[in-house]
UniProtKB/TrEMBL annotation:
InterPro entries cross-referenced by the UniProt entry: DUF7129 (IPR055553)
Organism in which the protein naturally occurs: Halomicrobium mukohataei (strain ATCC 700874 / DSM 12286 / JCM 9738 / NCIMB 13541) (Haloarcula mukohataei)
Full protein name: DUF7129 domain-containing protein
Pfam families: DUF7129
Domain DUF7129 intervals: 9-42
Domain of life of the organism encoding this protein: Archaea
Amino acid sequence: MPLWSTPHDDGDHVYECRRCDRRVHTEHAPQECEGCGGAMRAVHAANAE
C-alpha cells in the first residue's frame, strides 16, 4: 500500500461544543450544540491525547 494512500473516510466524526464541551458522534457536522446552542468544532478522537 502506498504511503500516500489513506483509509476511506466513512464519515465517522466527533464534534465538541466550544461552550459546554458536549460531544456528538455524527456523520454530518452539527451547526450548533443541541444542549446549549453553542458552536460545534470537529475533534479527532483517534488523535486526542
